[in-house]
Amino acid sequence: MTGPVEGGPDRSDLLTRLDIGAGEVKARVREFYSALNSYLAKTALDDYVQFFNWGYQPLPGRPDDWAGTLPAAMIDRDAVRLVLELIGPLAVDGRDILDVGCGRGGTLSTLASRFAPRKLVGVDLNPQSIAHCRGSQSDPRVQFFQGDAEDLAFGDASFDIVTNIESSNAYPAIDRFYREVNRVLRVGGAFAYTDLLRPDQFDHARRFLTANGFALDSDRDITANVLAARRQSADTQLRAFNAADGAQADATHDALMAYFLAPEGSAFFDSVQEGRFEYRILRFRKTSDCSEL
């Protein structure tokens, strides 16, 4: 077990859960998503799975940042809603947008279809995710690149909005990522950020970013909304994955998918419900270049 990882007072969430060192985490993340993409490619699900996020459901008495409605029978309805909640009041039309940790391209597909951005770029560590994105997206405004969130291959001040959805929990050096977001954003640009982290990790994000060229415009706890989406969808998703697999029961496969999808009653779901993790939406505005670049 290694010592603290840059970017917080304790080991990153994923490092703790997997009991691995910082040097291993990226290889393990690539391995996991390569296996997941390979699995999907062998099934009828491959053409339909665009998202890996946990989704969002509106709840009575809780505020929402997006005022629209989505069709009840829409595929990936909760995942699309999470993207729209993250964007909230941000002006997207005519903007250049970077999605870091783009997965299978669902976030950029949502933004391309519902708004009129000038350019959309997705970057992800996993080459199979990028291959899927390139093969399924024909919009000329959208481009996808394999890359590292902690070392973005884009020029300074290249984008108006950077989005990051449920991805940063796997970054072993989170402050490097925060510096890179500052570097590639134009002054006045927005960092739209949502993830499932420990409370102390969110505290660190607020402190580091506001001390290094960002103002915090909004911060909302959406844990209850995300757990509601898990209650609604996770079991159905598990059944779909298992039916598509068509193979005999595999305890390791079942345990991995239960962890990944977090159905109600799973250890991961319970740890979130008990408050050990929070799911939040934070929107930062770049006011100046990062002092630690």
TrEMBL record:
The organism's place on the tree of life at top rank = Bacteria
Methyltransferase type domain mapped to chain residues: 98-192
Which Pfam families does the UniProt entry name for this protein? Answer: Methyltransf_11
Keyword Methyltransferase in the entry? The reply is yes
UniProt GO molecular function: S-adenosylmethionine-dependent methyltransferase activity
Q: Signal as a keyword?
A: no
> Coiled coil where?
none
Q: Which InterPro entries match?
A: Erg6_SMT_methyltransf, Methyltransf_11, SAM-dependent_MTases_sf
State the name under which the record lists this protein. Answer: Class I SAM-dependent methyltransferase
- Which keywords, in A-to-Z order, does the entry hold? Methyltransferase, Transferase
Q: Name one GO biological process term.
A: methylation
